[in-house]
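Deliverable D4.2, example record:
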Amino acid sequence: MSEESPPAARPKRSRVLGCLFVAGALLLVLILAPLAAYFGFSARSSRLVEAKLGELREAGEPAGAADLAVFYAQPTEEEDCSRLWLDATAALDSRPFAEAYQELPIVSEPEKKPPPPGVPWPNLPTAQKFLEDYADSLALLHRAAERGGTARYPADFSQGLAMMIPHFDQLRSGARLLALESHVRAHRRDPGAAAESIRTIHALAASLEREPLFVSQLIRFACDGIACQVAGDLLPHVEFSEDDLKRLQAELLVINYGPGLRRAMMGERAVGIETFRNPSSVADSGELKPLALIGPRNDDLLLYLDFMGRTVSAARLTGPTKLDAAQKIEDDIRTFCVDGNAISQVRYAFTRLLLTAVTAFFEAEAEATAKNRIAAAAIAVERYRRPHGRLPEKLEDLVPDFLPEVPEDPFDGKQLRYVVRNGELLIYSIGRNRIDNGGDEGDEDDMPPDVVLRLPL
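Output generated by the structure prediction step:
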């Protein structure tokens, strides 16, 4: 016969087993409840993401690489100048171009200026020979500008942040080549041809207007900036015709970066969405490498879409209001993704790394706008000086005969500053720090406090 447990032991064992069962059940709940909450939250985030992407597509805005390729539409055959611009600059994307005539200003050293017309230029024959070597490229550049139209450059948006964009270097080299040509033409006492070279730089820059990437707009700003610099350098020394001055001024005044910036922000958002969907495309890039292996989260993408929606809306604003909106967005990004706790930094890691310089984007547009307006005002001053034999006392004196209105400084919404001192005329914007430093351009290693055009009296 088996030995039975004492009656008192059986209830005790039952209680132990019951406690173990309850503990196991609680442990299971503690494990399953967060998992259920996580998957429920993820499902909700996924639904919200898909809804937002659907809203973008309904509004005609790209929500991924395929949409972006359609958004960056091919112009009609009659309007398309893409091939002409690419053919014109193809020879400039080469080692011979990069290595040739390293002593030349502008082409090899963009910050180094030739001497002004009327001052001996020892390297002028070398510069002329350089231009002769690239005469075919220059002829095509002028033909593209003359034709007008628009462009759609090759771009594989499916590569996301790893996308290669070779035409940027070609176009920038084209602008520098034209700048050198303008200086050489001015030295050869051909002001009409020098003005034509400046106008062609602006046309080259405008070919990037529709490209929906912010880096494309940065190249556009840079090319227009080269044209403004050449105009400012030559204006005090070259007797441009009144017609040439009017044309240059009119082209500067109609440049509007707003639509291009909005398209660029939409394009950046689409590339960002593609990065979330295909993180392997950035598996080799810096900080994103470990994150790409784990993969992004829908709540991270949801926050990214919210911030980018605000950025696209901010791009529709103007002047300092636009800059204020961009700064608020960047402050909020920092609060959510950078200055928060470690959990937030990981949770919103892709948003943190994709949205690093919102304010800088808008400041770059404002600075490029300021340069155009300053150059237009300087041309108006020169046009005023010719019939009056003196400088205007203030920019208001130029309205309405030489300017439709006094240009606004995009950094504060006030009029551009106009100062005559120490034998110079200064027309300037207060620049990115949004403080009037009296036309002080700062040290070489610092961000220039003011955006300044100096003209000798």
